Amino acid sequence: MYRTHTCGELRSEHINQTVTLSGWVQYNRDFGGMTFIDLRDRFGITQLVFGMDIDNNLCEKARTLGREFVVQVTGKVNERSNKNNNIPTGDIEIIVTELTLLNASKLPPFTIEDDTDGGEELRMKYRYLDLRRRPIRDNLILRHKLGQEVRKYLAGQGFLEIETPFLIKSTPEGARDFVVPSRVHESNFYALPQSPQTFKQILMMSGYDKYFQIVKCFRDEDFRADRQPEFTQVDCEMSFIHQQDIIDVFTGFVKHIFKEVREVELGEIPVLTYADAMNRFGSDKPDMRFGMEIKYLDSQLGDTDFAPFKDALDQKGSIAGICIENGAVFTRKQLDAYTEYVKEPNRGMKGLIYVKWNEDNTISSSVNKFFSEDQLKEWFKTFNGQQGDLLLISSGATRKVQKAIGDLRLEIGSQMGLRDKNKFAALWVVDFPMFAFDEESQTWTFEHHPFTSPKAEHLDKIFTHPGEVLANAYDFVINGWECCSGSIRIHDREIQSKIFKAIGLSEEEAQEKFGFLLGALEYGAPPHGGCAFGFDRLCAIMAGTESIRDVIAFPKNNSGRDIMLDAPGPISQEQWKYLHLKPGS
Ligand code: ASP
Fold first, then answer.
1. Which residues lie closer than 8 Å to 193 by C-beta, 6 or more apart?
2. Angle, vertex CA 325, rays to CA 322 and CA 327, nearest 5
């Protein structure tokens, strides 16, 4: 028997028992006559004591044990004179009488401690060591727990867990497919699912009523921070429901998992339209942990001569800004940095105007040559601002200025510590646009995916005013992260054909790609809809970490590589041949 207990198990009630433990050497401290070792396993840490007075040889042997050596010890549980309140086993120690070295270890390239000295690349290369660290282990335990609660809640609501295949044909979610060449069928390829979207819809058409799956999805996207080419979703679908039913069931779902996994009560979860979210926060995934909402001076300054504002209004744009409480003390340097921030190419503002209502009741501003103090004080009213506050304002095309000011709001919110990772603010965003205009290809494309239903009252605008068509699509957002998206699907064959046509798919292309779905739509498809939660993201938010890599056992790095495996990598000549591929072809 390797052990009678784990390293996290012993308490004062075990004092005087003889026990056997196995684990890794975390620390070895030699005090001459005594050697102390912290022995670690998944469950915790237990202090071992080797005394010269007990067994000189054993003590000598213990001194030679390096970090990460694997050992088995037997000894007596003893009450510690110096109790350690920081660990659950801190009341006891083991006076060791037998020691077996199970395996030696090379010196690890970084310290296996909560705060390690290893950089990210090094830790990913030696992931098997990094996984021994407590913060990562805690995250994986949380992930396990979350998975259990997801299953518990959904099964309790009558959902069936059904697996769908990985070797399939393309499912469009707006990314490129990863493809797998077929050996048996020359020049043919499978695609890995970007999501199980079409399968779950087919399951509804087959009468399964409520489906879910904790499932891997694969998307070949250009690498952006915190994207993984393979990631996990909690994928769900329901029949005979309206949007409100989905919102109700999954509001219950998020409340359940936050309560069970984090002991957090989410409270009322507001529902905002996409248009409102953009207007108030400049984002379709607003961080609602703090206010600082965007306000507009458009109507107030309708007849302004100030060129940047006038130009924006002439072109049906907006003058928008935020008010920072007690921000009048911000320095010139900070204000300059914010100006540069909104001018960065992805925001593209021409400038940023500031107005400070100083504590001495004076106004200082970058536009005081153009507006009187009284006028500027009027602006504060629009922002519900007061003495001591700061306004930051920009102007331009409405969506662009909303995004720039929305980003600035987040930036300042972070700097002011308003985005506390232990606070959770959730909302549903509904009524998304159906189509988005792709500047590059100059065509309309779907915003969610092509199986999402348009609002019935907008059906007649699909070809004439695609930009005005709203979809029965919704997102669940928490702390500024989009955690779930979904929609009510099209269950009418004719409407599905129309949507394919609107995004530029000919009848033949639609048949070739989605003939099976169009076929199924002809055999009594029920009204249905669903959603998918990003499981990695949920874990990251609950674990209070910024990166989903911290909650995935074997993640890829930011450029999609698995550094431990060194993948992707070349294949052998033999494989090229039997897959009927030619290098460079
Ligand atoms: N398949 C969608 C996605 O992966 C989710 C859904 O519409 O249910 O985003």
1. 164, 165, 166, 168, 171, 199, 217, 218
2. 90
Is the CB–ligand 1 distance for residue 488 below 6 Å? no
Q: What mean pLDDT comes out for the span 385-412? A: 97
Cα-Cα-Cα-Cα dihedral of 463, 466, 469, 474, to 10°? 120
pLDDT classification of 33: cutoffs 50, 70, 90: confident
Angle between helices 493-502 and 507-521 (to 10 degrees): 150
> E strands within 433-480?
435-438, 443-446, 473-478
The 10s digit of each residue's pLDDT in 130-165 is 999 999 999 999 999 999 999 999 999 999 999 999
| Gap from CA of 475 to ligand 1 centroid (Å) | 10
As a whole number of angstroms, the distance between CA 65 and CA 71 comes to: 9
| CB of 173 closer than 6 angstroms to any ligand 1 atom | yes
CA angle 470, 225, 228 (to 5 degrees): 80
Ligand 1 pocket test target in 285, 448, 489, 535 with most atoms within 8 Å of CB: 448
CB 351 within 8 A of CB 405: no
Residue whose CB lies within 8 A of the most ligand 1 atoms, among 197, 430, 451, 489, for a mutation test: 197
Q: What is the pLDDT of residues 179-223, one digit of tens each?
A: 999 999 999 999 999 999 999 999 999 999 999 999 999 999 887
Q: Which pLDDT score is estimated for 223?
A: 72
Is 201 near ligand 1, meaning CB less than 6 Å away?
A: no
Do residues 385 and 324 lie in contact, with contact meaning Cβ atoms separated by under 8 Å? no
- Closest-CA residue, ligand 1 atom 7, reads 486
> Which domains, and CATH codes, for the chain?
12-103 (2.40.50.140), 137-272+427-552 (3.30.930.10), 290-419 (3.30.1360.30)
DSSP state of 480: T
CB 531 within 8 A of CB 241: no
- Nearest atom of ligand 1 to the alpha carbon of 233: 4
The token pair at 416 is 């002011």
28 lines ligand 1 (CB under 6 A): no
Bridge partners (DSSP) of residue 528 are 239
Q: Look up residue 562 and give its two tokens.
A: 């698995």
